[in-house]
Design brief:
Length: 252
């Protein structure tokens, strides 16, 4: 529970899935507002806008969240420089890619694709929670936030469709809620939350933006400012909860 002498008073943050979209914007806003003295950011594809950012406070590390060894290696690298993280923000997620589209009906259900949704959107988050735990066992306030999605709310599902994405985000919510309960014992100052960012203009939402009214389609800049406001207002009693971009609680 102690900081090593070299990092006392230094604030460190880790943004996971920072190669593009919301994760990349978190990196930009952490740097522009000087929110952390040391910022670690992970990317999957080495060719990303992230690695173009030249800032002595930033260290970029490779991490495919489906590979626990890569998560462990990144955490080990961070541990060579610090024993404490004050923010961990996991922005990894998949909705579609060149081989996978969200299912519109049961006819499109495919076991391999379903498992891929779970592997990236759910399992990755809890492997991260497992590996990063030693860096959250300190005496300062810490935040472990994972970007989920409102469509992962079971109670709020009135439209159907998107089986794999919805189910994998619901599983993520449960895994983070369970992590919050264990962290209360092991890292009592760490607040664990899942967050709905609102529909945000990124690669992930691009094919599905047609019916979104312009005022409901947020820029990454707006989304990250809103999520940071939510994070700044959290209390320890909020750990284990699922919040929307405006700070309201979402039903499970
Ligand atoms: N945009 C929205 O409207 C919206 C709405 C609700 C929830 N969300 C959630 O917000 C989060 C961020 O999404 P976004 O909108 O910023 O989309 P995005 O621009 O597509 O970013 C997704 C990020 O996840 C990373 N990623 C995907 N698979 C990975 C893996 N196996 N290992 C490591 N990283 C991986 C991507 O890395 P690469 O750059 O290497 O592909 C990328 O950095 C996701 O969890 C998403 O589900 C978004």
């Amino acid at each position: 529970m102690t900081d090593s002498p070299r990092d006392v008073n230094l604030r460190s943050a880790l943004i996971v899935g920072a190669g593009q979209g919301i994760g990349l914007e978190f990196v930009k806003q952490f740097l522009s507002t000087n929110r952390a003295d040391r910022l670690y950011a992970t990317y999957r594809k080495p060719k990303s806008d992230l690695v173009e950012i030249a800032d002595p406070r930033l260290r970029c590390l490779p991490m495919d969240i489906t590979d626990e060894t890569q998560i462990a290696d990144a955490i080990a690298e961070i541990q060579t420089e610090t024993s404490a993280l004050h923010y961990v923000i996991n922005c990894v997620g998949i909705l579609h890619d060149s081989i996978m589209q969200p299912e519109k009906s049961l006819r499109q259900i495919n076991a391999e694709n379903l498992l891929r949704y779970f592997q990236i959107n759910s399992v990755g988050g809890v492997l991260l929670a497992k590996q990063v735990q030693p860096l959250l066992k300190h005496r300062d306030r810490a935040l472990f936030a994972t970007i989920s999605a409102k469509v992962g709310s079971i109670g709020d599902n009135h439209l159907g469709g998107w089986y794999g994405y919805r189910a994998s985000k619901a599983a993520l919510n449960m895994l983070m809620r369970t992590t919050a309960i264990e962290y209360k014992r092991t890292c009592p100052r760490a607040i664990v939350v899942t967050l709905h960012p609102g529909t945000t203009d990124t690669e992930l939402s691009r094919p599905f933006q047609r019916n979104v009214p312009p005022e409901k389609l947020f820029s990454c800049d707006r989304t990250v400012k809103q999520l940071l406001t939510v994070l700044d207002g959290l209390q320890e009693r909020d750990s284990g909860e699922f919040f929307s971009w405006d700070g309201s609680r979402l039903p499970w």
